[in-house]
Model the fold of this input.
Amino acid sequence: MEQNEKMTLVVLSGDLDKVMASYIIATGAAAAGMDVVMFFTFWGLKAIQRGNLTGKSLFGRMLGAMNRGGLNAIGPSRLNMGGMGRWMFKLMMKQKGVTQLPELQQAAIDLGVKLMPCQMSMDVMEIDCDDLIAEAMEPVGVATMLEHARESKIQFFI
Amino acid sequence: MSEAKLFLDFKGLLCPMPVVKLAQAIKQIQIGEMLEAVATDPGVMADIPAWTRTTGNELVTLEKREDKTIRFVVKRAK
Done:
């Protein structure tokens, strides 16, 4: 059987704009018949978190509170201005009929995009598997990501 | 007259949804059958041909009409 072409995205950023670009590229590639893996590391984990408070230790819980995950909590990389920018961008995108992040993520899931969380980032930031959306895969390390990236026709680092 | 099996309304949809919905819809028709869609995003003019080239499906027609809507017909080839 003919193998589909592959694409790997490393999503390091947890900003609204960059996460949005990641999901748009991923859904576009999946719609064109590619096997897509998104590897979420460090801030990028926010894009596959449920949005609950995370952390166990004092620092972990502080991080969880100040760095809330989930698609509704993340703001743009510039001009966020304490959440005002997020509100403004979301409103402007809605007015123009741009597909919102949760719907984009669902489209990616429906098209079979694999959402791989980075185990080491989860350990450092005290994020559990239960803090991630159900569609996220089991956490993996760099070797698993590289195995896919090596076979990929396109690789992105966002 | 069009012999499309499936008619889709992509009006108001912006990138990447036209190709996402197209990829999902093409699975609902058989190889050799056609689907017809109407869209409003000007990006569709470039993106639909790119999508058919990369997926190996056939773009039968793609036209911008007087009311600024874009109509296209895609034949499932694989």
